[in-house]
Structures are given as C-alpha cells and as structure tokens.
Amino acid sequence: MSFQKCFEIILKYYPSFLLGIRTTLIVALSGTLIGLIIGLFVGGIRAIKLDKTASGLNKTLKAIIDAILKVYIEVFRGTPMMVQAVFIYYLVYTNIVHWNKMVAAIFVISINTGAYMAEIVRSGIQAVDPGQNEAARSLGMSSMQTMMNIVLPQAIKNAFPAIGNELIVNIKDSSVLMIISITELMFQSNSIAGTTYRFTETYFVTAMIYLSLTTISSIILNAIEKKLNHTRTSLPQSDTNAHSMTIAQKGADYADN
User: Fold this and answer.
1) pTM for the model
2) Domain 3-256, CATH
3) Other CB atoms within 10 Å distance of the CB of residue 167
C-alpha cells in the first residue's frame, strides 16, 4: 500500500468523500433520532403494567399489543439490516410507490434502530427506582401519567450510554445501505476504487474516515453524558422516598395543568 497514493486519492476525490460523509451522517442521525422515538413508544408500552383492577378487555388488548411489539423487535433484531433494506425497498417500490432512496434508507435504519431502542428504553425504565413509581401512584397519577412524566425522563438518562452507542453503530452500519444505491460513504468509496483500481488505498482512506466519525461522535456523546451525570442530584439512601414524592408531586402538578 502506498500512502502517497492515499493522499492523491483524497486530494482528487475529496468532493465524493464529502458527499458520502454528508449522506452517512444524515442517514445515521435521522435514523437514530426516529428510532429513539419509536423505541420510547414501543418500550414504554411494553413496560406499562396494568392495574389489578383493569378490565378483562384492557388486559386482552395489552397482551395482543405486547405480542405484536415483541414480534417486531425479534424480527428486526434477528435479521441483517442489508436484507431488511433490500426487502423493504423493493417491496414498496414494486407494489406501492416509487419512493426516494434516501427516504427508504432513513426508514429502514429507523425501524431497525427502533427495535434495539425499545429494549434499551425498557431496560432504562426497569432501572428507575420503583419507589418513584409508587409515590406517583399514591398521588393519584395514572400509569400513563407516571410513565410520561416521572419514569421516561429518568429512563432516558439511565440509558443514554446505550442510546449513544446506537448512533455510533448506525454510522458504521449505514454502509450496508449501499445495496439500494444510497450515495453514502461506502457507495462513493466503491465508485472511487473502481475508477482508480487502487482498492487498498481507497478503502484505507474510507476506514480512516469512519474511524474519525465514530471517534468524534464518542467524544461528543461522552461530554453530553458527563453533563447529564453532573446535573443528577446525589441523595442519601434515607432521602429516597422523600425525593420520589417530590418528583411525583411535580409530575402530578404538570399533568393537572
């Protein structure tokens, strides 16, 4: 491998690399954000526990919804994103509408990420002190109010490292979306390598770009995580119940307004 050729490739084809980087970041960031929204919705629903006084109809509906969501999670976590991209893109393209490839890429990476985010959010919810949930319910808040105003904000803080890791994974895994001809970084690298016949040098440059993107993302995410941890209030164990009641009371006031 020639490092001189690497520099020559960068200087000659940097517009193509920049276009690939831009597309990769758009797809990864959009997919992670939309996937987080999906994960909050799916994980929140799965984590909600019905009261013992709930009607049989509500319990049946909850069981059906949980089963459907579990199938969604298992399917998208258990199959490769490349297969999902090809199947979904051509299923919609040939049977419904000739949709834009960028929209298709964001859609695929979003629903794939949503399946992982759902389990991340559910784990974050389970890590929240049960006393806070009990305090909120003692103030008359419903299961949904407790989940939205008390539990989910803390669950996101608890799960932030895993959520940030999904962004880094998506930056790398977006390379498989070249299968549907998205002009992301790997697609551009293949075009450059095919033009120059310098496969080793081109993919070395590509690897360094991916490494730079993930490293910068990790630094930013670590800074955000430290900021979140710094804002948390450290309380003695004896103050846990009082603190739970305070948070729940604020949530109840917010819900009433």
Assistant:
1) 0.81
2) 1.10.3720.10
3) 21
